[in-house]
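Chain and conformation:
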Amino acid sequence: MDEEILNVIKRVHEIFRKGRLTLSVAESCTGGLISHYITALPGASNFFEAGVVTYSTAAKKKILGISASTIEISGAVSESTAREMAEKVRSLTGTDYSLSTTGNLGPEVIEGKEKGLIYIAVSKTGRTILKELRLTGSREENKEAASLSALNFLIEVLEKWQI
C-alpha cells in the first residue's frame, strides 16, 4: 500500500481511537475502497462500525432510505445525495460520525454530470459538511483519488471540529 495512503489511514485510526469515537461509511462511486483502506490496519474494529456500498440508485433508496425526491430533483451524483447518504448511514448505525461518497468516475457523462465529479460528506449529529471534487484521471485513478480525498476531508473536518 502507498505510504501516503497508509499515513492517512493511521491518522484516521489515531483520531477515532483517541476520541473513543465511532465511524460508519456509505460509499457509491468508491465502491468500498474507503472501507478497505480503513480496515487495512489492525484496530479498525475499535471504531469502524459499518461500511455500506450503495452503488445503484435503487440501493441508495432501499438500503439507506434516500428519498426518491432527492434523486429525482438533484440526481444520484449530487451534494444532496451525499448529504443524505452520510446522515442516513450515521442514523442507521448509531455512530458518532459518518462519511459518504457519490460521483461519476467516468468515462461517460451521467445525469448530465461530467466524468470526475465527486461529492463527499462528513456528518455528525446536527451538522453535515460537504466537499466537491473534480478529478481528471482514469476511472481507477479517480476512484483512488476520491477515496484518499474523502479520508483527508474526514481528518480535516474532525480537526476543525477539534476532536
Notes: Strands lie at 23-27, 48-53, 97-103, 117-124, 127-134. The CA atoms of residues 13 and 43 lie 8 Å apart. Residues 3-7+22-160 form a domain with the Maf protein fold (CATH 3.90.950.20).
